[in-house]
Amino acid sequence: MPTHVESRGPNEAKSPYLGGRTGLIAGYIEYVMQAGFVLASLAVIGFTFVAFDEPIAEGWGFLVFGFLLLAIFVPLGIVFARDTTLTRQRWRRLDTVGVPAIAEILEITTIILDETDGTRLRLRISGPGFTPFEASLECEYRRPMLQVGDRLNAVVDPSDQLFAVLAAPRPRG
């Protein structure tokens, strides 16, 4: 099954790739945010022991709340950190073994993507060193100049059809 590299982060709008790219700074920001959630949970628990003479008897509500936050944020932090790490590894792999390709737009559908307008592109991706394949890509990309039949620059890892599509369309012709 073809896969595409997609990421979330503050550099999405500046990325030359459809779907964004998690760069070094965006990756670290995500890691720091995840650590901040866990530390906030620990701070609530710590506050309970500092603020109350009898933390178990008087501050049990804060303790329960702190441990509840911890039970939620530690697994979520692990999942999000793993997702960020895997996305960054995929981008590095595309940078090292990716081959140039062409992604021809077969269909364009306007969708709602995370409460914003987005686009779903059905693509035929072809190039040297791999069998052409079809895939779809959802992105926050709403340029009206995209049309069915447009050809976009792409990069593909031929071993497993991991791909990224560049945002700038190729000239028609």
TrEMBL record:
Q: Which superkingdom, per the lineage?
A: Bacteria
TM stretches of this protein: 31-50, 62-81
Q: Which UniProt keywords apply?
A: Membrane, Transmembrane, Transmembrane helix
This chain belongs to which protein, by name?
A: Uncharacterized protein
Lineage of source species: Bacteria, Bacillati, Actinomycetota, Actinomycetes, Micromonosporales
